[in-house]
Amino acid sequence: MKRFSILLFFCCFLGCKAHDSKEEDLKASALKLQSYQTYVFDNPFEKNVLHALVLVLEQEGYEIKNIHYDLGFINAQKPMATVQLTSQEKAPTKLEMTANIYKENNQTKVKVNFITKTFDTQGIVKSLDIITDQELYEHLFFKIRKKISQAKDRNISKS
């Protein structure tokens, strides 16, 4: 009986450790995702970064759905491929982007989220998927940096 109790104790202990490990993995992956969803610009002017983001989104084929300059919020979407539901039904898929832009110290932070929305034939959202592709976020931030740099160059040449 004593051996059984000890064995039961170790099984429970190991089971708890496995659960903690999964939870830690989820936290680590969430932190990793947040790390490449957020970018810090040395530009202290939020409106310049916001304006650059709007220009990039328009160039990339996004439709701006909502924008609030005072709050530093943008929501945009872009049509993607159509998904075949059945042999006769097709469902549109859209890539949606939400960004929050805010000042922190003498810098501007941008937090971006990309999701895909798949709709059924009645236009009701069938599924939402968070985009975890780091390259998509890096590409967007690269384009924003480039736009800000081009704007600075234009302002310097005008002086």
Descriptive overview:
- There is one protein chain.
- It contains three helices and six strands; from the N terminus they run H-E-H-E-E-E-E-E-H.
- With 159 residues, the chain is of the alpha+beta class.
- The protein has one domain: TATA-Binding Protein (2-Layer Sandwich), CATH 3.30.310.80.
- Helix 2 packs across helix 3.
- Mean pLDDT is 81; it is low at 4-15.
Query: What is the CATH class designation?
Result: Alpha Beta
Terminal Cα separation, in Å? Answer: 88 Å
Cα-based radius of gyration, to the nearest Å: 23 Å
Number of helices: 3
Extract low-pLDDT stretches: 4-15
User: Per CATH, what is the topology?
Assistant: TATA-Binding Protein
The tally of beta strands, per DSSP, is 6
Task: Give the ordered list of helices and strands.
Answer: HEHEEEEEH
Overall pLDDT confidence: 81
Please report which band the strand proportion falls in: under 5%, 5-15%, 15-25%, 25-35%, 35-45% or over 45%.
Answer: 35-45%
SS-based class:
alpha+beta
> How many strands, what sense, and barrel or not for the largest sheet?
6 strands, antiparallel
Short description:
47% of the residues lie in helices and 35% in strands. The protein is of the alpha+beta class.
